[in-house]
Design goal:
The complex is a heterodimer of chains A (about 290) and B (about 210).
Chain A: E1 14-20, E2 27-33, H1 38-47, E3 58-62, E4 65-66, E5 84-89, E6 105-111, E7 118-124, H2 129-138, E8 149-153, E9 175-180, H3 181-184, H4 189-217, H5 242-252, H6 267-288
Chain B: H1 6-12, H2 14-88, H3 91-123, H4 128-153, H5 156-159, H6 175-184, H7 190-203
Classes of the chains: A alpha+beta (about 290), B mainly alpha (about 210).
């Protein structure tokens, strides 16, 4: 199937179908364009002598239903590649089955908003303008903001989106134009400023959200790993002084912990005490003598 | 005969004499002031040089102190591992650590302290307070650590792992410490003398000091 995004003629769809002979059951595999009608196909089958001429004529059937002769293959519901189409010989004096069209289909040409190319488009007459625009937008026929586009017909710009083709008086083979409303407007500096403000508000809101997320997901302070580049000799054991380790080793052999040698001496105190005693004696003894 | 008295002569030329005396005084003052300024300049220059040298020596002293502290930390880690090996019961490792400790004590640790002490001796020469402070803060703790380590290395459970005799140190590796202390000793330094002797005995230098 062709990519509708790149086709100007939207009905350019091929089907690979198998046609089954009404009598022998043999099948003929054919690739046919989608715009071929049932009647045309039957004629082709006759020309190629797949089937013999038959006065009452033939019908084609698919999925148990007879296909209307004027119907095109692309209009057949649920048709798919490698589908089996049965060729059914009509019986004599039987009027061909005519399926009453309940809805009229309009063949329109729709002009692209920028490149000016025309697109063949078929829609029922009760299709709304909004639906046509949405359909073409979804198929990628034009890009941008959907709400910025409208349709014009003849001298009427901005067709009402809620009205149908029949209500607007659009008939078969009419030309509709897709119009880009925003392209014709020059944004003012106020609009630009407003746009920037809106963008700033959106960006600020996004930043707040991100900060909130980061704060919520931040691990607890005691779970933050130690940065080895900053910490000095990170160890998992507490500090032990040389003195404590040596005392521990001494204790294994039953020795007492080491005593720190101090520079204190009793000698000066004794000498001073002695001198005081001598002075006191020297003062007091003469009094008694 | 024109004989006039000395006083009369002075009285006659009083102004001249006064001016001369004044000029003399001014010259003296100016010379004195100029010399004084030059003195101040020289003193300031010398002070700046002294301060620069002191800062330089300070930096060198701090560097040597850092090196000494690093050696001390290394000793502590080796002793810590010795304790862990004793707990594990790995006799070969205990023996290895014992040997390592004795070598580092005598060669690395004592050497670092010796360099530090030598510079401190020059730096604090004449400053009795700083001298005494250095002994209290560095020399005595060093001797205390060395003595403790020797006791541990020669205690039965550690010594018997190597079937060797007690480790003995050479006084020449530690003489710098005792020489530094002796500089500070006065007749009245009973406490310091007593501490020095005890440290010497612990290290096995009882008769050497």
């Amino acid at each position: 199937m062709n990519n509708p995004e790149h086709d100007e003629h939207i009905s350019d769809i091929d089907f690979e179908l198998s046609f089954m002979h009404p009598q022998y059951g043999t099948t003929l595999n054919v690739i046919i364009p989608g715009d071929r009608s049932i009647e045309e196909m039957i004629q082709k089958l006759l020309i190629n002598r797949f089937i013999q001429p038959h006065d009452p004529g033939y019908d084609l059937s698919f999925n148990g239903r007879i296909l209307e002769p004027s119907l095109r293959f692309e209009e057949v519901e649920d048709l798919y590649d490698s589908a089996l189409i049965g060729v059914v010989a009509r019986t004599e004096n039987v009027e061909p089955i005519v399926v009453q069209e309940t809805k009229k289909i309009l063949h329109l040409k729709i002009q692209h908003p920028t490149n000016g190319h025309f697109l063949d488009f078929r829609a029922e007459e009760d299709t709304k303008i909004q639906d046509i625009l949405t359909n073409l937008y979804q198929r990628g026929y034009f890009y941008g903001e959907l709400t910025a586009f409208s349709m014009s017909y003849k001298d009427t710009n901005h067709l009402s989106l809620e009205h149908t083709l029949a209500e607007l008086g659009i008939v078969n083979l009419d030309v509709l134009r897709i119009v880009d409303d925003k392209k014709n407007e020059q944004p003012t500096w106020k609009d630009e400023l407003e746009g920037l403000k809106n963008q700033l508000a959106v960006t600020s809101a996004q930043l707040e959200e991100k900060i909130k997320d980061v704060r919520e997901n931040m691990p607890a302070p005691d779970l933050i790993p130690v940065d080895e580049k900053l910490s000095v000799n990170p160890t998992i054991t507490a500090y032990e002084s040389m003195e404590s380790i040596l005392s521990e080793i001494r204790a294994k052999d039953g020795f007492a912990p080491f005593i720190k040698i101090k520079t204190f001496s009793w000698i000066p105190i004794l000498i001073i005490t002695l001198l005081i005693i001598l002075v006191v004696v020297a003062i007091l003894v003469p009094q008694f003598i | 005969m024109f004989c006039i008295s000395f006083l009369d002569a002075i009285q006659n030329d009083l102004t001249f004499y006064i001016l001369n005396i004044l000029a003399f005084a001014v010259i003296i003052l100016v010379t004195w002031w100029y010399t004084r300024i030059q003195q101040f300049k020289t003193i300031a220059q010398l002070r700046t040089e002294i301060a620069t040298l002191q800062i330089q020596q300070n930096n060198e002293l701090f560097e040597l102190e850092d090196i000494y502290k690093a050696k001390e930390e290394r000793m502590r880690l080796i002793i810590k591992d010795l304790r862990d090996q004793i707990n594990k019961g790995d006799l070969s490792m205990v023996r290895a650590r014992r040997n390592e400790l004795s070598n580092i004590l005598a060669l690395d640790y004592a050497k670092a302290m010796s360099n530090y002490t030598r510079l401190a001796d020059q730096f604090y020469d004449g400053n009795r307070y700083r001298h005494t402070q250095f002994i209290e803060n560095h020399i005595l703790p060093f001797l205390q650590n060395a003595g403790d380590i020797m006791k541990v290395l020669n205690q039965p459970s550690v010594r018997d792992t190597s079937d060797a005799a007690d480790i003995k140190l050479n006084y020449m590796n530690f003489d710098f410490a005792f020489d530094f202390i002796k500089k500070d000793i006065r007749f009245t330094s009973f406490g310091l003398k007593s501490a020095m002797k005890k440290h010497a005995q612990r290290l096995g230098f009882g008769n050497d000091i």
